[in-house]
From TrEMBL:
Record region (Disordered): 176-202, 330-531, 544-621
Polar residues biased stretches: 179-189, 465-475, 601-621
Residue stretches of biased makeup (Basic and acidic residues): 544-577
Bias (Acidic residues) ranges: 432-449
GO MF: DNA-binding transcription factor activity, RNA polymerase II-specific; sequence-specific DNA binding
Keyword Lipoprotein: no
One Pfam family here: Ets
Family listed: Belongs to the ETS family.
Organism ancestry: Eukaryota, Metazoa, Chordata, Craniata, Vertebrata
Keyword presence, DNA-binding: yes
Name of this protein: Ets2 repressor factor
Keywords from the UniProt entry: DNA-binding, Nucleus, Transcription, Transcription regulation
GO cellular component annotations of the record: nucleus
Length: 621
DNA sequence: GGCGGAAACA
DNA sequence: TGTTTCCGCC
């Protein structure tokens, strides 16, 4: 049973994301990890390298890559055909997709894959890197897969590389680590070396840098805990119970202790300020990084304003902001909730992503065990070719009953406030709601795949605000400027606060504002009282639009049964997880799907939940 | 080349 | 579960 007061939205990662074995460096390395490893190594740049669009890479030497992979997995018979099959399985997982028209070219869905598991992202400046290298959002981002064990740290892959070298290395037994296929315990990352040496020198912090090429020229907002120490953030707790097999500095596994200072995804990292500060996720960054995308602060501001307004006006979940950097959702000042403990047990098992990063340095006690649960889930696989073809007709009658869910509340504060508040008047529908965003994603993908047939584009990713916000793309998130009602300049801060939603739950407006424009505008009611359209009315209009949108998007929503079924399944499972406090708390999260901002289609459901949330959040205002 | 079903495997 | 292997099809 889900705690009705807990409106926290969770993201759930797929099973594998929680498995330590799935982590790079583990003996169960997964192909995509391996690919990333290769990509981050210059030695392999002639075999595989970032190229083209953001996250796009080209396998220059399929045979070699296959060989390397085979070596890694002790599958001598591996070949590109097989490897590619494995890669194709990632399509459904949305980890990868094919760049159509380009041979051996694939693209990571970094927007959805936030490598949460590898919070060792260091914003250090990177050297020239292809624009496609961007898996990580911020500038000069390099991150490497942390070694699971000392031996792994030491193990190297130097041999793997060149064919010539390779052979000589075939049986190399890296220092202490086993890499002999015979015992099936090849543990070493064949690609570990160079980086290791370099990183090792720098100590723990430096040990985790260097994976992705730098891309953002500007100061990175990301700084999980690699690289320069963030004075505001507590450094990762010292390893408590070293996990031999864990690739993480701190075992994310429950029971291994020190769970609460896990690794937050860059996308999830939060500043220690009292506000929820969203750090850009890869997807976020891409917009600004994309070669095809240019964005100036003003535009961004505008966009964000619009978005803010949308969220604000329609009571969409503030988490929508999490898609954008520098957005702060100020929390109403109120006495510090005295429920940390409560909050905690609400989530049961130690949270994987504990909120070490959300702790407030200055805030002190309050921020302590902030239950800022994050859960991530990959989106449902996109429609298969078959399903797409067949399914297009069958439809999406149940568009409202999407299955996947992926959303999150990034605000621990919010959680706290919610917790500290009395029983909500509004019924919260976590599960169903959560899914809405997933659908959005699906929609994005399908649209892209079917309409544009252009994988090189933004690919159903929440890449760029522009892409999402300003583009005329059907997948555009919230109503944008083209919507009179949403015209930021017009109403952003003039919306009357009158959300008679949720059975009389007095709904105050959330103090949402852009960092750049602190507070004031957040005033629920326009000072001038201009253009105060009753929210009800607005909602009504919105509803109509939504309906229409839904109809239009019906086609897109025609997800194949498979997907849907899975989604529903997962949704249910997730639901129970949420109920029991978060289920797997390993916190070993590899990927994070950042759902795009809610789309109109989903506005209604989103709205519902958001309303609840906001209502709770501001009931005291 | 690329896709995806199916079955097998660990 | 995540491939690996095989294969027919486009």
């Amino acid at each position: 049973y889900k705690n009705p007061y807990d409106t926290t939205v969770w993201f759930a990662f797929p099973e594998w994301a929680y498995k330590p074995e799935s982590s790079p460096g583990s003996r169960q390395i997964q192909l995509w990890h391996f690919i990333l490893e290769l990509l981050r190594k210059e030695e392999y740049h002639d075999v595989i390298a970032w190229q083209g669009d953001y996250g796009e890479f080209v396998i220059k030497d399929p045979d070699e890559v296959a060989r390397l992979w085979g070596a890694r997995k002790c599958k001598p018979q591996m070949n590109y055909d097989k490897l590619s099959r494995a890669l194709r399985y990632y399509y459904n997982k949305r980890i990868l997709h094919k760049t159509k028209g380009k041979r051996f070219t694939y693209k990571f869905n970094f927007n959805k894959l936030v490598l949460v598991n590898y919070p060792f992202i260091d914003m250090g400046s990177g050297r020239g890197v292809p624009q496609s290298a961007p898996p990580v959002p911020s500038g000069g981002t390099h991150f490497r897969f942390p070694p699971s064990t000392p031996s792994e740290v030491l193990s190297s892959t130097e041999e793997l590389r060149s064919p010539g070298m390779f052979s000589s290395v075939g049986r190399r037994m890296a220092r202490g680590s086993v890499s002999d296929c015979s015992d099936g315990t090849s543990t070493n990352s064949e690609l570990e070396e160079a980086v290791g040496a370099e990183d090792r020198v720098g100590g723990p912090e430096r040990a985790f840098r260097s994976l992705l090429p730098p891309r953002m020229p500007h100061e990175s907002l990301f700084r999980v805990y690699g690289g320069a120490p963030n004075p505001g953030l507590p450094r990762p707790a010292p390893r408590v119970h070293p996990e031999p097999l864990s690739p993480f500095p701190i075992s994310p596994l429950p029971g291994s202790g020190g769970l609460l200072a896990p690794t937050l995804s860059p996308a999830l990292s939060m500043t220690p300020t009292p506000h929820l500060s969203y750090t850009p996720s890869p997807s976020m960054s891409s917009p600004m990084l994309g070669s095809h995308f240019s964005f100036n602060p003003e535009d961004m501001k505008h966009y964000l304003q619009a978005h803010t307004q949308s969220v604000y006006n329609y009571h969409l979940s503030p988490r929508a902001f999490l898609h954008y950097p520098n957005i702060v959702i100020p929390q109403p000042h109120r006495p510090t909730p005295e429920k940390p403990a409560t909050a905690h047990h609400l989530h049961g098992p130690p949270m994987p992503l504990s909120h070490s990063l959300s702790q407030q340095p200055g805030g002190g006690e309050e921020g302590h065990q902030h239950p800022s649960p994050f859960k991530f889930k990959l989106q449902p696989p996109p429609l298969g070719r078959k399903q797409r073809e067949a399914g297009s007709s069958m439809a999406a009658s149940s568009s409202s009953s999407s299955s996947q869910s992926s959303s999150f509340t990034g605000s621990s504060q919010m959680t706290n406030s919610l917790l500290s508040r009395g029983p909500p008047n509004i019924k919260v529908e976590p599960i169903s709601d959560i899914e809405s965003e997933e659908d959005v994603e699906v929609t994005d993908i399908s649209e892209e795949d079917e309409k544009n047939h252009n994988d090189e584009d933004n690919e159903g990713d929440i890449f760029t605000p522009t892409a999402n916000g300003n583009s005329s793309s059907p997948s555009a998130p919230l109503p944008q400027n083209n919507n009179p009602d949403d015209d930021p300049d017009d109403e952003v801060f003039k919306t009357p606060a009158t959300p008679p939603i949720g059975g009389g739950g007095g709904l105050a407006f959330p103090l949402i504002s852009l960092k750049s424009e602190p507070g004031s505008q957040a005033a629920p009611i326009s000072p001038g009282g201009t253009r105060c359209i009753p929210l009800k009315l607005r909602f009504k209009r919105r509803w109509s639009k939504d309906q229409k949108m839904e109809a239009d998007g019906e086609r897109d929503e025609a997800e194949d049964k498979k997907v849907r079924a899975e989604g529903e399944e997962e949704a249910e499972r997730r639901g129970s997880e949420v109920e029991n406090g978060g289920g797997r708390g390993e916190g070993v999260i590899l990927g994070l799907m950042l759902p795009p901002p809610p789309t109109q289609r989903r506005a209604s459901s989103e709205l519902q939940r958001a309303t609840a949330q906001l209502s709770l959040e501001n009931s005291g205002c």
